[in-house]
Amino acid sequence: MNISAVLDTISDFVWGPPFLILLVGTGIYLTLRLTFLQFRTLPYALKLVFTKDQDKQSEGDISHFQSLMTALAATVGTGNIAGVATAVVVGGPGAVFWMWISALFGMATKYAEAILAVKYRVKDERGEMAGGPMYYIEKGLGWKWLAVLFAIFAIGASFGIGNTVQSNSVADVLHENWNFPYAATGIILMILTGIVIIGGIKSIGRVVSFIVPIMAVLYVAAGLILIMMNIDLVPSAVGLIFTDAFTGQAVAGGAIGAVIQMGVARGVFSNEAGLGSAPIAAASARTDYPGRQALVSMTQVFIDTIIICSITGISLVMGELYLNAQSDVEGAALTSNTFEQFLGPAGAFIVSIGLVFFAYSTMLGWSYYGERCMYYLTKHPSSIMIYRIIFVIAIFFGAVIELNMVWSIADIMNGLMAAPNLIGLLGLSSVVVAETAFFLQRKKEEEQKRAPERE
């Protein structure tokens, strides 16, 4: 048995029924305990995202918006373009449906992660906020050993999902489209990433707040134009997504389990709900109440999966190129070919450039997650610089080395870091409910005070 087969076996085990039940089950459980909060408060949460920062006097390093953009930077990447395509090829159109389901419940998971991250955050030796699963697992549950495991797995994941996967995808797309040398891509990415992460979270927040909105809007606009120009294909494509979700006919052997597994796994790879990564960014935000930042963080899943991944998924099913996809044209190439089929060379160009900037911003976001976990383990500020140097070097190797097994490695690391986080969320669910009730009461009082002013 070769290494690739061993990794695939481990990945299948990690993402087997028990873990999927824990992952989605946690989202369902939190949704019920929070009485469907993600649906009731979504309009207000989206309004908060684009409201000018009103918490400048509150503790924190960056604004609500910058915190969200850092989290989005880390999630909007190859998962939205290559990951969705892989899910459709391997799991069939029905995988898109299960991505939606995991995202809808994942919004509650993401909310819980953020509210705990802000509640249990601490100030480090440099005066910056430090928070995330490692802190709420240790301080909330009192299980230091589990917190340490999360930090170790998260550092490992930062070099997979947050580094080599991204640089390898950028190098591939630049080489295939413009014959750009792999080594040159690696060197350029090293320099551009190093320049930004040397300044820490404030520098990262500024850069991603500029890059992410522009690229997300450009990609979404192109996708919507594609869909509107071929609106007659949409009903049958959406219908196939729903029917295949429960039949699995598009998958070899009609295995419905494969459809669900690919949909949930790729959905989590894209939006990271339950992984415990995004709350590390949420902990750095300036906010008066944990609940307010948690609502902002919750919108990340909605934007990432319900909007961006849906556009990719529906376009892929409309194009039907996945039916004849071979292993060498899966992923980003399949999405690029689909956009080119409908929009011509401009479509392929948008996907290619979008992937480059999405992947770059993902590396910036994940570098922060990794360094925070490194600091948690060592408690020495000097370890942050050591981590940054190693992280930047790894970018080059990711760009020049063949990484055929990288998706399996990334999936394994995602599962390993998610497990401690999900245990922490379930164990601290009562804290989440209590903090939510407190915030909603304060929100109600604020609205009552403003009511006479409007009159």
From TrEMBL:
Coiled coil: none
PROSITE patterns according to UniProt: NA_ALANINE_SYMP (PS00873)
Short name of any one Pfam family annotated for the protein: Na_Ala_symp
UniProtKB keywords: Cell membrane, Membrane, Symport, Transmembrane, Transmembrane helix, Transport
Matching InterPro entries: Na/Ala_symport
Domain of life: Bacteria
UniProt topology in membrane: Multi-pass membrane protein
Entry annotated with the keyword Transmembrane helix: yes
Matches recorded under NCBIfam families: agcS
Family: Belongs to the alanine or glycine:cation symporter (AGCS) (TC 2.A.25) family.
Entry protein name: Alanine or glycine:cation symporter, AGCS family
Provenance organism: Alteribacillus persepolensis
